[in-house]
Every structure is written in C-alpha cells, then in structure tokens.
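thread: overnight batch results

M.L. [08:02]
morning all. the overnight job finished for the chain we discussed friday. pasting input first so we're all looking at the same thing
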Amino acid sequence: MKVTELKEMNLDELKAREAELAEELSRMRIQLALKRLDNPLKARNTRRDLARVKTVINEKLRTGAVQKPPAGAGTGKKA
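M.L. [08:03]
and the structure it wrote out:
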C-alpha cells in the first residue's frame, strides 16, 4: 500500500487498517514459527505496511488534521 493512498484515508479508516494488519501479522508470526508460511517475505511486507499506517496516523494527530471538540465541550457542566 502506498503512502499517498494512506494519506487520503481518514483516521477511522486508518485505525481499522492498523488493527487488520496487526491481526494479520500476528497470524503470520505463528505460521512462521510453525514453518507453515509459504512466503516469509509477506511477513516483512505486512510489518512495513503496519509501520506506514502508524506513521500516517501519528502525522495526522500531530498536525491536528483531526477535528478536536472545542475546549469545555462535553464536560457535562452547564453555564
């Protein structure tokens, strides 16, 4: 998956993709330990894709691209 594709996704889609890749990597590691994985390079590519997704999520959070609620909103206090 290319970085440009990832940057076009919103934060919820990225988090879903992160969870999917983490689950896939977990399964691959088990198969790799049992010598049942056909192509060990798939695990490396999955690990790198996961790192890319995490990097884009972190960039979006740092730049403030995610809409944050205004200060004091949702505190339950009335003026």
